[in-house]
Amino acid sequence: MALVTPLSADHDLETKELAEFFNETLGFCPNSVLTMQRRPAISKAFINLNKAVMANEGKVTSALKRMIAWVSSNATGCRYCQAHAIRAAERYGAEQEQLDNIWEYKTHPAFSEAERAALDFSLAASMVPNAVNAEIKERLYQHWDEGEIVEMLGVISLFGYLNRWNDSMGTDIEEGAVESGNKYLGKHGYEVGKHDGSQY
């Protein structure tokens, strides 16, 4: 069991309507959102922020945003969000070679220099203490404009919230997310950990 039990998807109808967004991104409403709706203002604000952050207004694709989310979640160690991010990257058309080699994005030829700069930014911004520096900035500006950098940091920051939420909650992971985590991350030792319901 998680720290706090998720409520039924029908508990708050406004949240339920907004949460249809996740049927496209994940194929299900995440347990994290079902827990947040114990205070519906939080669940609704979170979903609206998620939708705004994941909107595409520049060259940062939906697939790259989800890979940025994966790198951030990997840096913080949140297994729940790693699985969700890689699942969403798959659903949004990330190349198979990238999905299979996300752990090696720094050197694998499936990733462009622009993608590497974005993913290195995600890694540096997710560290404690923060590791974004002049070199990261210079590399970002070689490939991305300021609006696109804002989009990227929106993803990183959103997942900073989610990483803390789900690791602290020990949120029970959904079967579809487990499947994606095992499929793409299992060869590198991915395991559900505290999100299997046994932490509390």
TrEMBL record:
InterPro entries: AhpD-like (IPR029032), CMD-like (IPR003779). Gene3D superfamilies: AhpD-like. Residues 40-120 form the Carboxymuconolactone decarboxylase-like domain. SUPFAM superfamilies: AhpD-like. This is Carboxymuconolactone decarboxylase family protein. The lineage of its organism: Bacteria, Pseudomonadati, Bacteroidota, Flavobacteriia, Flavobacteriales.
